[in-house]
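Hello forum,

I keep getting stuck at the same step: I have a sequence, I want structure tokens, and every attempt I make locally crashes halfway through. Rather than fight my setup again tonight, could one of you with a working pipeline run this one for me? It's a single chain of 314 residues.
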Amino acid sequence: NSVVCDDRQYIDFYNLHFHGAGGQYGANFEIRPTWQSPKDISIVNCKSSNAYYCGIWATYATGMTSIDNFGVYGTEVNNNSTFGIRVDGENTSNKATNTVINGCHIHNNGNAVFGFYGAYLQFTNISLITGCLIHDNDGFVAWGDNVYVESSTHLEVSYNTVYGGNHHGLHFDVNSNYFICKYNTVYNTADSAIAVEEHLISNGASVIYGNTSYNCLYGLVFGPGGSIFEVSGVTVRNNLWAFSTRANIELGEDGVGHSYLDNTMDHNSYWVNTDSPSYNGDFRAQNPRVNLTFSQWKNYTAWDFNSINVNPLL
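Reply #2:
Ran it on my machine without issues. Output:
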């Protein structure tokens, strides 16, 4: 690793370039505690590039309190082979807390063999990703999200510009509840602008509002999950889903018992690109999956009573 900051507290790193860490799990900047829980560590106006595994990695030690108050500000993270920024807590009862990724440029991380993500948060609580430019984090064909959040709660993802990549723009998975996804612009992704999987209303409601997406395969995807075949408790309002190349929204109902209707959608604006070679329909839902018009979508879901389906160009 280029810089190791294990077992440290109250340290800031300014204006440094971390580059080229090698080894199977080589990270340009790594926090992996062994005897003291790390807290109040910041990376400010730095650059982290071309690590074999991860550009910036804050992880945990079994049974030790996970990192608190870790921040990455104004930093470029690029061309790292697997992850750009990765923050891990240990489990659902020992989460990394108060993570901030603010004003960063995260791009071209991942590769065709190993994957994976531009920014990856797992087992975190009270986190913020805001004001970032995040793009072209490719991974391999099945995965490669620009932002992937797993088993995390009380997260805000806001005011980011996200584009490119082999999969989703913003992906919330595995009971990542109580999240707020607002005022992001997402475009030209190979899959959806925003995806939500395995979200249970019984574990907390989340909100997606004020976002703009265009030229993505889908604007929004709900499920299916790998183990919890349900998305419920999500409010989707005041978003613009424009020129989606396959469908505006897909409900991934691939099997009996999947539930996607215990959500709220309204006051959204939709438009799909019917000239796209991958175009299937305005909306996709039901089991087996069928393509629905806007009117059929509203009748099936009882959503979007006040939404519109018109070309948004002035």
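The chain has a mean pLDDT of 92. If your local run keeps crashing, start a new thread with the error log.
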